[in-house]
Amino acid sequence: MSKYTESVPGFRKLITGTVLLPGEKGYDENRAIWNGMFDKKPAMIARCLNAEDVSQAVLFAREHQLQIAVKGGGHNSAGNAVCDDGMVIDLSLMQSVEVDSQRQTAKVDGGCLLGAVDEATQKHGLAVSAGIVSHTGVGGLTLGGGFGWISRKYGLTIDNLLSVDMVTADGSMIHASATENEDLFWAARGGGGNFGIVTTFEFQAADIGTELYTGPVVKRFEDAGEYLRFYRDYVLKMPDEMTIWTVLRQAPPLPFIPEEYHGKMVVLVPFVWLGDPEEGEKLIQPIRDFGETIGDGSGVKPWTAWQAAFDGLVEHGARNYWKSHHMKSLSDECIDVITSYAAKLPHDESEVFIPHMEGAPSRVDPVSTAFPHRNTPFLLNLHTRWRETSDDERCMKWARDFHDATRPFSQGVYVNFLSEEGSDRVREAYTEEVWDRLVKAKKRWDPENVFQMNQNIPPE
Length: 460
Ligand SMILES: Cc1cc2nc3c(=O)[nH]c(=O)nc-3n(C[C@H](O)[C@H](O)[C@H](O)COP(=O)(O)OP(=O)(O)OC[C@H]3O[C@@H](n4cnc5c(N)ncnc54)[C@H](O)[C@@H]3O)c2cc1C
Prior knowledge:
- The chain has helices at about 5-15, 25-30, 50-65, 115-120, 140-145, 150-155, 180-190, 225-235, 275-290, 305, 330-340, 390-405, 425, 430-445, and strands at about 20, 45, 70, 85-90, 95-100, 105-110, 125, 160-165, 175, 195-205, 205, 210-215, 215-220, 240-245, 245-250, 265-270, 270-275, 295, 300, 320-325, 350-355, 380-385.
- It is an alpha+beta fold.
- The two termini are about 35 Å apart.
- Flavin-adenine dinucleotide binds near residues 70, 110 and 145.
- Flavin-adenine dinucleotide binds next to strand 3, helix 5 and strand 10.
């Protein structure tokens, strides 16, 4: 019997959570992640319940030279939440959210999903600025930056992060904030899971109320080129309270879209307005009036319902290959490239997503966190999604070609939307100055690169 095999029963007793080995009940469901492209088989899954468990798991993995993968929400399209042969430190049982309604803050466990945070904060009319799909993990999203419907007004998720409790590579449990372990706190705001495992995030929440005026409006795909030209200019005039995005995809069978358009390419215009609905309506009217509107789902909705409105379009298990850029601008030439590739979407679940980004995040000093690309007005996301392995090559080629063709209009990439794209591309998520500082922090906090199942920042 190997030393590792002999040590497993002791480790099972040591942690309050559970340990799963290959073949044991629950092993397969807990090694599965959102992106169905990955089918990795770890030697062990440590389902931790608290920071002490996480610390013991790190020490055990290091003692037995097991590669560590950290699973937050398991959503990352690059598949880094699992590894072959090593240990998955699974945080998904760590789900507590504590809201302090007086201070308007929330303490969120490292394994929480966004839906749990919205549910807890909304009891007080509060929300943490974060992503748009409720089954995304807070862990990965926050450590890479985090943006969503209210970030133009309230900043990125990291701009609202007050502190973290973290287990570092030597198993220590430490606190980091603007006044304690500052270099670690800086690196954790954009540098991903490179520096340790966050067991608790403390966020500033915003008082947004429980109901908001939201979209979407639906336009004809035939007018996409003209609409995008209008969109790029119009949204730049919007106050931070209004966030309007564009999605090019096949129309889902929603009641407010006429049946004849279901399954046909359309321009979906989701929006969120933080304010008096009548004021928001006035700002949305020009969107409706531009060209033809074929569907309109706008109205005042509960925030938690809106935050789950896109969940069904991106359920777990499909094959995914996502590519992304921050866009310097949407020039006419760029729009022509976008519409020509969108017209050839490789699968009915794929989509082209164009969020409007600038606002409060752009007014934050680009080196005050490890998220430097704050001044690009748009993001271009190619959500390539399909079901059959036989479609892999065709779908991935579409994404790669589209991505290459739009590269001249781009500047950098959001680290959370990287696929497995190689170390040079990881550097493009950062400026040189930020990269050098991240490497310095990595050398200090994880000199042996224990945490490398991520968009890796090597210590040298
Ligand atoms: C459908 C979908 C919608 C999305 N929408 C948005 C959006 O609106 N806004 C946005 O900003 N991003 C969005 N993203 C991107 C998202 O931010 C990343 O996929 C993110 O990595 C997801 O985090 P996770 O915890 O679910 O992922 P995981 O796959 O579990 O983890 C991702 C990485 O982070 C590490 N990690 C996770 N938790 C921790 C932790 N507690 N401590 C240390 N390391 C950790 C993992 O080791 C891994 O390297 C979306 C992604 C998908 C697939």
